[in-house]
């Protein structure tokens, strides 16, 4: 007979699965992260895993979407706390540092990510896409600032700036310092 979990236990187990999956995805990638290992670390059976997530892909979708939502929430808070261009710069720096902690956020061009995307349902793929669009909307809809350049150009510059994280290991200078420098100097060219 399967063990039943209290609501509190369910909440804690679900959160633990998400946290451990996030760590494993960052360290090993999607393919090398196994449900068996996640379950062992959380202390549940593989059968119990399916009480929380319908599949490995559902868990990964939840991890990606929850991380994206959390990053956007933190960036929005930074922009509300610090108004104007400096708030946008602070939000960008925060986003970049979160990407640095979670390499799966910028690995969409890897074989590992392709394997995941080939296995997720159409609805999960759409949900992941919507979560990825959150930060774009964050910068497009700033209440007090207007772009000095075409909106598509500005968003492309912001995206390119963040995606420079892929070059972090080959830069002769600390990549965080480089990102901060570029952000501080580009922000005036992007916004009025």
UniProtKB/TrEMBL annotation:
Pfam family, any one: TetR_N
Matching InterPro entries: DNA-bd_HTH_TetR-type_CS, Homeodomain-like_sf, HTH_TetR
Name recorded for this polypeptide: TetR family transcriptional regulator
Residues covered by the HTH tetR-type domain: 11-71
GO molecular function list: DNA binding
Source organism, top-level taxon: Bacteria
DNA-binding region ranges: 34-53
Keywords linked to the UniProt accession: DNA-binding, Transcription, Transcription regulation
PROSITE patterns registered for this protein in UniProt: HTH_TETR_1 (PS01081), HTH_TETR_2 (PS50977)
